User: What shape does this take?
Amino acid sequence: MQHSANIRTGGEILVDALKVHGVDTVYCLPGESFLAALDALAGAAGAIRTIVTRHEAAAANMAEAYGKLTGRPGVCFVTRGPGASHAAIGVHTASQDSTPMVLFIGQVGSDMRQREAWQEVDYPAMFGGMAKWVVEIDRPERIPELVSRAFHVAVSGRPGPVVVALPEDVLAAGAEARDAGAYKRVAAHPGAADMARLRAMLEASAHPLVIVGGGGWDAQACRDIRHFVEAFDLPVAAAFRRQDILDNHNPNYIGHAGLGPSAKLVARIRAADLILAVGPRLGETTTGGYTLFDVPRPAQRFVHVHADPQELGRVYQGDLLINAGMREFAAAAAALKGKGPAGWRSPMPWSASVKAARAEYLADQTPGAMPGPLDLGAVMEHLRATLPKDAIIANGAGNYAIWVHKFHRYGGFRTQLAPTSGAMGYGLPAAIAAKLHDPRREVVCFAGDGCFLMSGQELITARQYGAGVVVIVVNNGMYGSIRMHQEREYPGRVYATSLENPDFPALAQAYGAFGERVEETAAFADAFARARAFAAEEKRPALLELVIDPEAITPSATLSGLRAAALKAGHGKG
Assistant: This one.
């Protein structure tokens, strides 16, 4: 489109705004509803890379993973109606995981609104319950203003997703518009009185315990929180799927309060006299269905630090509630002196129990035997010994992930990409986003057989853009986590949870990837070495299918054992 020097199309104004805000990558599936924006992205290809996926859910998941990796909003473009519906899963994950993200959606022309035009959707109604803010831009000259607000909202306070609808005519129209400046993150800081009270509570404690989690962390915040817990020799547990906030090799790290937690860790959390929860919402999964702490008043003295004041006191009342960003709190905690008015004994009064808790964590990382010729625990031990410390492990949802979370040691920020929302199909798109963002790091994706086929087509995206990820498909021929619950509640009545699967290695090879089937533990090491070498040398994805005995439903339970226990308890009768 030809226009005067001062006139730009809405699409050009939008892409110029993205450049102002430091966007270097967008993920999309193209649609005619935002062609003017696509054309502007073509003109900005030297500054902004556009990654085209094969499904909108994958594009949204990649944007969410980018937000986790960088702390900057991941940007996704999808078309109206069906495209927006597909992308909603990424918005939900970004919401529950507190990840900054901006989803741009094409919209019908302004002159057609509220007629239920083709693929028209009311986006504030659709996304209002899960996005931090939803806006439809009504004039091209307002694009810089509203995009600036979108980025500010996405990163400030508790980070999260923002949805911006773009009517076709607004993108295509020409207008004069002044560009905004780059967004600035806004976060609350802990007050001096808060930190003094925290120090006093630590001084009065005999058995403190820290739980880290939530969003809004960066590498410096993780270094600061490590300095704090080392200075006070505090035991640290990770909330569900936030295991990379503190390097798991650190002697203060004592385990994961997520799915299948160590019974000894649970006992230590219950026995603590002071809980310092830094960042997590303390949701259902981390708290074992809200049973780990008494509701509404925990038995322990309770300190909760969160970026969103509305989360403080939402479920649990606290002795000290601190509204602060993770970066701000971690910096203040790192500055706390290790010797207070009451004086500290050296070692700390609780140092012996920290060593004991660490020893329990290490002992729990030794897998027991599992049914079948391929032992997933032994696989995890091999990966733990083989992968570099900065390797990124991505996964979606399913019981296979319990082995990953239980037996892998995450090397610190950002080595874990996993949805606390429990979304299947997340692992492969997230792994691709990670590899494209930082090609020098090794990236391994875990997926169950059901999980993988929700996004497996993105192997061709990985090939197209040279993302040499290694994908490990754990195949037990069923939706394992659902089968587990089915056997507990309706023992022996197996229905709608069995899967018939394709030849996964052949499917991978059809996409131009490496593919190999592994059926025995002894064969894994060499197969993984071949997959790893192929991914590195060819810059293409590699897939290993691990055939697992369906009996091995968790590291500590079998399906037949669950069924027998349920029948004994009288479930499924009547």
The chain has a mean pLDDT of 95. The chain is about 40% helix and 15% strand. The two ends are 71 Å apart (CA to CA). Residues 521-538 form the longest helix (18 residues).
